[in-house]
Design a protein that fits this description.
Layout lengths: L1 E6 L28 H7 L10 E5 L3 H10 L7 E4 L5 H12 L7 E6 L3 E2 L2 H15 L4 E6 L10 E9 L2 E8 L4 H10 L2 E11 H11 L1 H12 L2 E3 L2 E3 L2 H5 L6 H6 L5 E6 L3 E2 L4 H7 L8 E3 L2 E4 L5 E4 L4 E4 L4 E5 L4 E5 L6 H10 L10 E4 L2 E8 L3 E8 L8 E2 L3 E9 L2 E5 L2 E5 L4 E4 L5 E4 L6 E9 L8 E2 L8
Parallel strand pairs: 1-2, 1-4, 2-3, 3-11, 6-12, 14-16, 15-17, 16-18
Antiparallel strand pairs: 4-9, 5-13, 6-9, 7-8, 7-9, 8-12, 10-11, 18-19, 20-21, 21-22, 22-29, 23-30, 24-27, 24-29, 25-26, 25-28
Helix pairs in contact: 3-6, 3-7, 6-7
């Protein structure tokens, strides 16, 4: 029994402005029409396995569920971490859930934000790893390096167990360039992929031996859970007491049963815009482009257009990313410094580090398309069968114009239907909600007007869904 465990947490800033705290890179479509999360699930099609078990942050739960629904993908549950505590506790939660029914599956631990271009090689390495995992070994996958990389940790292999697996001799921190060159030249080192395969019980037994406080905290948190549809919610106060540690530090560097299986599958963790340029298809001039892009005398450049035409003339070695609310221009050699921009946004309390202009909710989306001192204009989409929370505002009134579908409107003590090209007015202080009773998405234009238009002017009158 192989149970994929897909870690979909994290809120990395290295791919800003596409990646945001509330919508990080694992939920983006960066190399195909599918998101990275969906690609992670799809590449498992070549092996027998149970429906994957997912681990994600509480605030990302609806994004995960919606992307699985859109992809027609099953799951064995979605564990929600109330706070991030690194990979050792996350995997412990998955292992505890996996053995809850007196089963002991092999856990194939994967990150949701990796690119693997050679699926056959990936699946072959998994099959080789199963041989050792079934013997009770804790297997990690070592990426066969293609160049001296200073951004990854390394694994030094030891004694050969067979032609496809080695004992782990050591885990090595990110090296300097000269050391990385020596590593690659020796043929004895692999990039540390952060992917693993082992029996659930073996991981828990090694965790109990080397990091018992993590196991105790995870057991206590799993003892007090709330099941909500596919979601497993943990007790926040208990889980916050869990030590923050990676699986490498907590277990893999200490266990006597660590094994590395090489993987040569065109892998990347897409840790920067330059690495994304590397894994994308390029034109004859070395340009990788997505969206509405025109180039003239442009070479070795990555250009991503989300909303507007982007045209370049006479540039080289740049990264240019356009979204609805931000534009990034960076030299490919300096893309690691994007985190400095994100830190500036945080310090200035600007929303651009946190979320996109278009915001995803359980019921649909809303996107601010215009705004001024006393008005905001939003495009709102409500999915079939969904509705927003009932709420009221003290400082703003709202006008709604339906442009597609049918809306059921709650406005004070009135309930009525609006169809295309019809509108309604929501006065200040009136309790209201929107429901889509139809079979197609409901789209409407909302105009907010008033002296105070911030999102915190809201009183939710029931806990149905999430307002906006």
């Amino acid at each position: 029994m192989l149970l994929p465990v897909i870690m979909a947490g994290g809120s990395g800033s290295r791919l800003w402005p596409l990646s945001r705290t509330l919508y990080p890179k694992q939920f983006l479509a960066l190399t195909s029409n599918a998101t990275m999360l969906q690609e992670t699930v799809k590449r498992l099609d070549g092996i027998d396995h149970q429906a994957p078990l997912f681990i994600c942050n509480e605030e990302h739960r609806f994004i995960v569920a919606e992307q699985l629904r859109k992809g027609g993908m099953d799951n064995s549950g979605i564990i929600l971490e109330p706070v991030g505590r690194n990979t050792a506790p996350a995997i412990a939660l998955a292992a505890l859930k996996a053995i809850a029914n007196n089963e002991d599956p092999l856990l194939l631990v994967l990150a949701a934000d990796h690119v693997i271009q050679n699926t056959d090689a990936f699946l072959s390495s998994v099959q080789h790893a199963k041989v050792e995992a079934e013997k009770g070994k804790l297997v990690t996958f070592g990426i066969v390096p293609t160049h001296p990389e200073t951004g990854y940790g390394y694994i030094r292999r030891g004694k050969a167990l067979n032609s496809d697996a080695y004992c782990v001799d050591a885990f090595v921190e990110k090296p300097q360039l000269a050391t990385a060159k020596d590593y690659v030249g020796s043929g004895e080192y692999y990039w540390n992929s952060g992917m693993f395969l082992f029996k659930a019980s073996r991981y828990l037994s090694e965790l109990e031996k080397y990091a018992p406080e993590i196991l105790d905290s995870c057991k206590a948190a799993m003892d007090i859970t709330e099941e909500d549809l596919d979601f497993t919610r943990l007790d926040k106060d208990i889980f916050m007491c869990c030590p923050n540690d990676s699986i490498d530090y907590a277990v893999m560097e200490k266990t006597q049963d660590a094994v590395v299986v090489p993987m040569d599958a065109n892998w990347s963790d897409v840790g920067s815009w330059s690495s994304l340029w590397e894994v994308n298809d390029k034109d004859a001039s070395g340009n990788a482009t997505r969206g509405d892009v025109l180039v003239e005398n442009t070479t070795n450049t990555y250009i991503y257009s989300q909303n507007k035409l982007v045209a370049t003339v006479g540039v080289d070695d740049l990264v240019i990313v356009e979204t609805k609310d931000a534009v990034l221009v960076a030299h490919k050699d300096k893309v690691q410094d994007v985190k400095g921009i994100v830190n500036q946004l945080k310090q200035a309390n600007r929303y651009e580090y946190l979320q996109h202009r278009e915001v995803y909710r359980p019921w649909g989306t809303h996107d601010e398309i215009a705004g001024g001192d006393r008005f905001h204009v939003k495009h709102v989409m409500v999915k079939p069968g969904e509705r927003t929370a009932t709420q009221m505002h003290y400082h703003r009134a709202e006008h709604w114009v339906v442009v597609k579908g049918t809306a059921k409107v709650i406005n004070g003590d009135k309930s009525y239907l609006l169809t295309e090209n019809e509108s309604t007015y929501i006065p200040i202080g009136s309790a209201h909600s929107i429901e889509n009773p139809g079979q197609i998405p409901l789209e409407l234009i909302e105009v907010r007007s008033g002296a105070y238009l911030s999102e915190d002017d809201v009183v939710r009158l029931e806990d149905y869904g999430v307002g906006y």
